[in-house]
Structure of glucan endo-1,3-beta-D-glucosidase:
Amino acid sequence: MSPPASRPRSLLLLLVLLLPSTRSLLPAPSLSFGINYGQIANNLPSPSRVAALLQSLNISKVKLYDADPDVLAAFSDRDVEFIVGIGNENVANMMDTSKAQAWIQQNIQPYLPRTRITCITVGNEIFSGNDTTLMTNLLPAMQSVRQALVALGLDGQVNVTTAHSFAILANSYPPSAGSFRENLAGYIQPLLNFHAQINSPFLINAYPFFAYKADPSGVSLQYALFEPNPGVTDPNTNLSYDNMLYAQIDSVYSAVKAMGHTDIDIRISETGWPSKGDQDEAGATLENAATYNGNLLKRIAMKQGTPMRPSVPIDVYVFALFNEDMKEGPASERNYGLFYPDETPVYNIGLRGSPTSYSSSLKTTVVSGLVGFLPSLVAALIIQ
């Protein structure tokens, strides 16, 4: 007896439902934000496990605060772009070009090119401290590291910069009136000239959380978290801002412009929101952390620029990969991580959606085989 006429259609429908979509089987593109991989903790997973974690999340940019050899070795052939750091305690030594060259030969060259190291930060937030000797040494140290890279033939591959606290600004509102602290002008002006000369980015650590924590009654939480809000209009430019981070970035652009430069990229080397804090740390909650970082990642995915630079997508390194239990200071300092040390997410911002249990090459093979087999199956069903 012939099968019912609906049988081929039913079987075809079943096949379509069982066949994974080709879209879901394609490798997910790398996410366009970086992550700060801090290690002030005694309970973190091994670097090899971290490498696998970041690969599963498709994160391809990592910033270190040192040049940890175990980390750099673990990321060999991982196609992850690294910023590595020279600590403040080692800045004075870097003023000697021979010492800078020896440092690079020991900490950078052995891992190239299999580990993609593209930038060295010399010191961290030096201008927000009180050590004027360290401030004076910073630019000569950066120049010396640059000279060492040139001597080793690495200047086209590895750049040099330093990271600054947002506290180096004297004024950040309105964004068009952004300016650096007057007592730092003598340090920052020649530093900006150096950045322009070698085409290296100006890195800033910007945290809307700090502004909200300092004045919760005066700062709109929605504005700080990228949530819907009336926004703020700069009276000098009539540009409208719907979030604090973009206003902070543009205030840095204005401060740099006030020193005669429009040829330097501003990048956010740190930003984030703590998921927990002390009782006096307003806004440090799991919900707010998830909202801030989740909304930030949406903006990054949209390739948005700031109102002053709408065609230049923001370049951001989120702080941080893990909660770090040995950090000093208020509780918030130990709770910026996207992940707990056991690699489980502190909260869900969509980073766990892309990994799958088998490789993209196997997926492609499966799809190709099924697609190739489909015409024969259709013909067989119709004949029946």
Summary: Confidence is low (pLDDT under 50) at residues 1-28, 353-384. The two ends are 10 Å apart (CA to CA). The first strand starts at residue 34 and ends at 36.
